[in-house]
Inverse folding.
């Protein structure tokens, strides 16, 4: 850890964020859940969408982009599919409610889908994958974003990097994937830059159009690289189209293009009732696939399943305390009135 | 076109393949559909899974891997989700039936899902995306494969490159994405090698573990590169898990590891009834996203939406005839008794 990182007990982090949110007008349960989701993101090693993102979230409440009091409402339903309007409420609360509803629908219909429009940034996408798996459901969800990546063949941001989350429950640790359609998420790019590190592989283009591992050069050009070049570009377009069509919300090209004003996002939440759908051999099968992955590593190689490192980080941070940036933590403490 | 490529009218290609299939025991409608799906793949520019794949398909019928007469049967149902057993019948007929059923379920439940186990290679995955979009449905489908790609961190094939297809209907041309989780599909790699071309970007590792654009070196090492490195590896694992859990079929690690014996695949087919779910503004919205993509290209750049090139190729091949490899075509004509 850099020298300006402290470790704070999870419960203290959660309680402090909750107090700040209460002062911003969040009522009891909503303050508790919203604070918990931020705290859990830091606890799981994704501080870019945990504590480090909290100041901007507060700023977007003050600027009116995020409506603290708005709750999502159902505006359409057909069998296992529902359309909800997020009414520009807090993005993580809206997304949590949407996945919760998708899980409930899946218990009735085998599969449940919620298309959520008019919402705000959901912070860490993986949150809703872990949520589904904790409930015994297979979860798939994605969000669109502001235009932050050129389409394949282009050089100006035109599509979103539209994170996709897929989760499968497993007793010994859920299998959870959380991937943006860019080689590095915007948060990951910022984290590398802040640490003064180069990217492990090329993550975008510099101003001259050359692939680079320098996060500064990519932030300057705005040219994030899609995963698999044309493939990630195409995937991002399809995810945007489906979330937008089914939610009746805004497509990436209609979303305000600056992070401070990004709102009106469209998201999809799909759940399968794994408990009743999967065969009796389901649990052994997931373990078998995980064991096979591990066993395919040869001398000196390390192969992990999606979610494995998150779980290791979580266990460590619960034991030792959650790493927080001391400056951000001081600011939050001040606002919390301590 | 290389000198050994002929152009054959689509109807002639279709009729010839149909006659060969009839001689192999396919009955009327099944012979017609199976032949059409192969012919359409060549027509759409994917000859690797069209005519060029036909001889191996015939060989797998002779070897007993593919059972010409087997038809899929439903083995479980819960609301909008059904589980089907493909009984190791022809993979393209099974997949077509599964997507057809998912579309029918979506008309009843808003969303329809068919998990198909115990099936064979579906040939061109895009086929089932175009099928859904032609029926006015949003389609999502994927398949697992034999182990043909090392997991991220490993060097021996342990996971499948599990192609994923996503389709959205559009009057002026459907938006259809068909992507393997490797940077190049096995068919694409073979096509580059056959043409004596290098890959446009690195597609895998050579025997020394160095990234390379040489298709020969990648085929020799068996080390396909996942799209987005760790991200494509994780996506492939998740797609395998979901298809396997919901179908009750085999995971990649349980599938016979040689192309000639690859069978018992697990696949997922999801359809959304776009016509009734999407708002009245749906059609303009898809056009708007496509127009925005095109408009984001600056001087000298070319940006296409997923499916755009397929449609251009299709139109050209319908007009000029479908390009076929003359040697393969001669062989097929002989078997057809002409």
């Amino acid at each position: 850890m850099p020298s300006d990182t402290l470790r704070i007990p999870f419960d203290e982090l959660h309680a402090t964020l909750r107090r700040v949110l209460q002062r911003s007008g969040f009522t009891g349960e909503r303050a508790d859940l919203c604070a918990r989701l931020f705290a859990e993101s830091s606890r799981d090693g994704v501080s870019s969408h945990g504590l480090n993102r909290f100041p901007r979230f507060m700023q977007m409440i003050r600027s009116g982009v995020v409506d603290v009091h708005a709750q999502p409402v159902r505006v359409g339903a057909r069998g296992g599919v529902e359309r909800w309007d997020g009414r520009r409420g807090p993005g993580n609360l809206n997304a949590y409610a949407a996945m919760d509803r998708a899980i409930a629908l899946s218990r009735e219909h085998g599969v449940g889908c919620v298309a959520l429009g008019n919402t705000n940034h959901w912070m860490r996408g993986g949150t809703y994958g872990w949520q589904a798996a904790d409930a015994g459901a297979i979860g798939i969800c994605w969000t669109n974003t502001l235009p932050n990546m050129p389409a394949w063949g282009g050089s100006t941001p035109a599509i979103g990097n539209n994170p996709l989350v897929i989760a499968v429950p497993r007793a010994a640790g859920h299998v959870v994937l959380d991937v943006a359609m860019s080689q590095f998420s915007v948060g990951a790019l910022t984290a590398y830059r802040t640490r003064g590190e180069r990217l492990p592989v090329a993550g975008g283009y510099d101003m001259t159009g050359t692939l680079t591992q320098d996060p500064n050069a990519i932030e300057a050009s705005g040219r994030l690289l899609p995963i698999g070049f044309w493939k990630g570009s195409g995937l991002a377009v399809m995810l945007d189209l489906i979330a937008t069509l089914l939610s009746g919300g805004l497509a990436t090209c209609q979303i305000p293009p600056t992070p401070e004003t990004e709102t009106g996002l469209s998201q999809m939440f799909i759940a399968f009732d794994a408990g009743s759908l999967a065969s009796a051999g389901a649990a052994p099968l997931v373990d078998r696939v995980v064991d096979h992955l591990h066993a395919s590593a040869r001398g000196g190689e390390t192969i992990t399943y999606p979610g494995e490192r998150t779980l290791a980080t979580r266990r460590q941070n619960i034991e030792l305390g959650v790493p927080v940036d001391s400056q951000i933590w001081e600011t939050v403490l001040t606002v919390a009135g301590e």
